[in-house]
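PROTEIN DATA CARD
Card holder: Putative nucleotide-binding containing TIR-like domain protein
Chain length: 158
Origin: Francisella philomiragia
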Amino acid sequence: MFDKYKELDYVEPPFSTLKAITKDKPIVFIGHGRSKQWRDLKDHLHDKHGIQIEAYETGARAGHTIRDILDDMAKNSTFALLVMTKEDEQGDGKVRARQNVIHEIGLFQGRLGFNRAIVLMENGVEEFSNIAGIQQIRYTNIAETFGEVLATIKREFD
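Structure generated from the sequence above:
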């Protein structure tokens, strides 16, 4: 019954294969909202440490759907930093991260695993329900995260 599917190659390689392919050189996706804080993180990682960065702004995207762009970035990335900044004020006064960032957190946790999809959470941003129990890097100024981000990347790729 399933013989016709034997020749189809639609299964993603297992994570252990992904690590072998990367040869210890990370490609870091940075998910973010409208805040410019992510650029400081990108500049630090790329300019000071030579780390390759994937983000919406790092490629020619005209004519492509968001779904296709995200899929390509998820396939190309070996590590993700998801920056939750205070941007969307709610009626009750709480401030949420942009919802695209919440979506990207789940996407990259599912694709790369929890150890390689790291949440950076600005102090005062509302937590979403499923983040309880997952360690995040919290900050007031994004520069405060640089050391811990580098240590986490080193942990995964050394």
